[in-house]
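Quick one:
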Amino acid sequence: MALLSVAIWLPIACGVLLLALGRDQNAGVVRAFALVAAIASFLVTLPVIGGFDSSSSAMQFVEKLQWIDRFNLYYHLGVDGLSMWFVPLTAFVTVIVVIAGWDVITDRVPQYMGAFLILSGLLIGVFCALDGLLFYVFFEATLIPMYIIIGVWGGPRRVYAAFKFFLYTLLGSLLMLVALVYLYFKSGGSFDIQTWHKLPLPLTAQTLLFFAFFAAFSVKVPMWPVHTWLPDAHVEAPTGGSVVLAAIMLKLGAYGFLRFSMPIAPDAAREYDWLMIALSLVGVVYIGLVALVQTDMKKLVAYSSVAHMGFVTLGFFMFNELGVAGGLVQMISHGFVSGAMFLCIGVLYDRVHSRDIAAYGGVANTMPKFAAFAVLFAMANCGLPGTAGFVGEWMVILGAVQYNFWIGALAATTLVFGAAYTLWMVKRVYFGDVANADVKALEDVNRREFWMLAVLAIAVIWVGVHPKPVTDAMNPAVTELLRHVATSKLP
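Output:
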């Protein structure tokens, strides 16, 4: 049925159509068309969930067509338990972003909506690509719409932030391209990723490949110390840009480790697991402390994202099922929670035009409905049991204790730091007496904002209370990946 192709190309086609035909004079029609396109793209991904065989670790919904005959290139798509959930998650977040920008974006509306639709299709393409060059094309192409989104609709320092984002992520990816070309010739002229998984490579080659992939994927996650582009990009990006960046784009790097680094260079991955664990722990602990001293709400949540993604890479490189599955669950739950946190900041910014924590106080008195949602998402960010933020973190901590007690104890400090900086922000923004005239004049969420936040709240609670469908789909693929990594590929 070519479901994956439709999920990729439907939003891209609709986005291109908006760019070609949309006009600000018809902004209402443009918004309606963008919403219908986003919802249709999301509905297309639902059969992928319904038709997915949770008992199999094999690739499903596979499509393979000749692309460039001379170089043995294929348009090759498929999903397994490692990638399946990110297809509907990407489409879902795009619907939320279109709704979030409904009244807020009044300038270049067709370009704004079109950029997000195109970005949605490209992101889904990254998670579905089974051809190395096709993966690289999608992986790099995602930079273009996000660069435009930050650079055109961002804040005062938007050009600086957009350039920094683009250069960091592009330079890291150039080494990955060299690695892909090496694997192409080493495999006898094939870009098939699954063929690369079976290559017997000497340890020196595996090490060089591992660090080439590390250069590309660590920047995307982002891992410490190459994380400095992220706070700038988040602060300057419009709300929709921050949501997609945190909810989906950060996951590309972590997904790359699972699809490329670990299965193609398993011996090198085991050889340098200490380095990945050390960098992840620094990200978890040090970045948590950095978040504690932030006075800008967006920067605080941006640093929080770096710390939470450090949890993901920590889980992956302990090479046990609890750790890897926990990292994957954390990626999905972080998609909901961080997106919701940035949307809440956007709701306040649209009214007060300030992101400073000191500009607020007592918001719950004037916006009780909004405050209820905001506090729920903040508690999920802390890892409160019963919310999506708890499940993945708890699984990673269990996996860390299974690997080494002291690493587990150190990883658990993120729960303390996470609660500290999140509750510090909640106390000063939402509770206490009304701080100033701006807060006193606030109006509670309108119908559009209410349903946008309500849908995310349902998702956060659903994953927190009933994560079984999520973990059941990924467990066979996780088990197969760990079995593959445990088997030496040395010639």
